[in-house]
Amino acid sequence: MNGFGIKQNFSKAKTVLEKSCSMSDPVACINLGIIARDGKLSEPDFRLAEMLFTKACSMENDRGCEYLAYMCVDDTYFPHDYRKARYYFELACSYGNDGSCRELENFTVENQ
């Protein structure tokens, strides 16, 4: 999805990703979530992004869980919810995401 060497076409990417996500491809769901979150085709849609990241996370995809955790920490998307963030970081960590494991080490008493 980075478009190196070719012009990015988010509309075409969305079509392909929607089909792949509907066929339970967690990476497609994540990339579709990024398009929604970042507003690549329209206004940012944080609820749609959350739904797509949740779908990927439910398929035991560490990155889907990690994206959800960061949405819970960054109040750009929703009000802070450190309990949910910790839950998603723990899931991502349990699925092998080292970055999420490190994030758990940084959680302090004040944001638990």
What topology does this entry show?
Blueprint: H1 10-22, H2 26-38, H3 46-58, H4 62-73, H5 82-94, H6 98-106
Put the structure in a nutshell:
The chain has helices at 10-22, 26-38, 46-58, 62-73, 82-94, 98-106.
Helicity range: 55-70%
Provide the succession of SSEs.
HHHHHH
Number of strands: 0
SS content category: mainly alpha
Q: Approximately what portion of the residues adopt beta-strand conformation?
A: under 5%
Flag low-confidence runs.
none
Q: Which CATH architecture is right?
A: Alpha Horseshoe
Please identify the oligomeric state.
single chain
Q: Rg to the nearest angstrom?
A: 15 Å
Q: What does the main sheet amount to?
A: none
Reported by name, the CATH topology is Serine Threonine Protein Phosphatase 5, Tetratricopeptide repeat
CATH class call: Mainly Alpha
Total helical elements: 6
The fourth-level CATH homologous superfamily is Tetratricopeptide repeat domain
- Give the overall shape, derived from the CA principal axes: globular
End-to-end distance: 34 Å
* Count of folded domains: 1
Average pLDDT for all residues: 90
